[in-house]
Design brief:
- The complex is a heterodimer of chains A (92) and B (142).
- Chain A is an alpha+beta fold and 92 residues long.
- Chain A has helices spanning 46-60, 64-72, and strands at 11-14, 18-25, 31-36, 88-89.
- A three-stranded antiparallel beta sheet of chain A has the order 1-2-3, with no helix packed on it.
- In chain A, strand 1 (11-14) and strand 2 form a beta hairpin.
- Chain A is elongated, with a radius of gyration of 22 Å.
- Chain A starts with 10 loop residues before the first strand and ends with a strand.
- Chain B has 142 residues and is mostly beta strands.
- Chain B contains no helices and eleven strands.
- In chain B, strands 3, 4, 5, 6, 7, 8, 9, 10 and 11 form a nine-stranded antiparallel beta sheet that branches.
- The chains are: A alpha+beta (92), B mainly beta (142).
- Chains A and B meet through helix 1, helix 2 and strand 4 of A and strand 2, strand 4, strand 5, strand 6 and strand 7 of B.
Chain lengths: 92, 142
């Protein structure tokens, strides 16, 4: 791991496109960082990213008939408004 | 550019005819599947309200999703995504080995139906959970 020391207000630059600035450190030791990155770069807190990644991977692993059958048992609300979404029709 | 129709074979769903006007581009990919950029939403009457988010590059990657209002009728996206004519959220549905169904309300996949772009948006704060459990109707005793 590359280790860099920075003071409040100083920045590091990654690949010429991503800038991370140390905004402040409070007495509890919480460091506030400001990240500037192009829209094509996704920035997440690491532990949240890991959790979301795990949930997506877990979701992608299910077999189709099981999913449909299980969801049928769930209590869901009717959605009143029409949701306009370009979708591909699955032929029966 | 030709408005080509592409045929995609999806395990469990059969062959889908995909028009280019229904293909969503994810500029940053999907969390956990960052290498995948092109997705379609597949639906059918029989599967309602389930919609599948399917990777065109790797059609065996298909995520079950539903519109979050089925789970929380007062569900709200952050202000910049609130125009319903432009943005449609889909919440990813994950299944625990125990049978528990979890809906990710914290990080919906937000589709822009005008630009055909999508991304998974993390909603700040603690109003929504990434693992919102669905309650299951107990089958009536015979």
């Amino acid at each position: 791991m590359l280790v860099i020391s920075r003071k409040v207000g100083e920045e590091i630059c990654i690949d010429g496109m991503v800038t991370i600035r140390v905004l402040g450190i409070d007495p509890r030791g919480v460091v506030r960082l400001g990240v500037e990155a192009p829209r094509t770069v996704a920035v997440h807190r690491k532990e949240l990213y890991e959790r979301l990644r795990q949930l997506n991977v877990q979701a992608a692993r299910r077999e189709l008939p099981e999913v449909v059958a299980q969801l049928r048992l769930a209590r869901l609300y009717r959605v009143a408004q029409k949701v306009k979404l370009p979708a591909v029709k699955v032929e029966p | 550019m030709a408005r080509a129709q592409q045929q995609v074979c999806v395990p469990g769903l059969g062959v889908l005819k995909v028009s280019q006007r229904r293909v969503f581009t994810f500029p940053t990919g999907l969390i956990g599947f960052e290498q995948l950029r092109k997705f379609v939403v597949a639906s059918s009457q029989a599967m309602e309200p389930l919609k599948w988010l399917i990777s065109l590059e790797q059609p065996e990657i298909a995520l079950p999703t539903l519109v979050p209002w089925h789970v929380d009728p007062s569900y709200e996206l952050p202000p910049e995504f609130q125009d319903p004519e432009t943005f449609v959220p889909l919440a990813v549905v994950a299944f625990e080995p125990s049978g528990q169904i979890l809906v990710n309300l914290k990080a919906p996949i937000v589709l822009n139906v005008r630009t055909l772009q999508g991304r998974q948006v993390v909603i700040p704060g603690d109003r929504y959970s990434a693992t919102h459990p669905l309650s299951i109707a107990v089958p009536r005793a015979g």
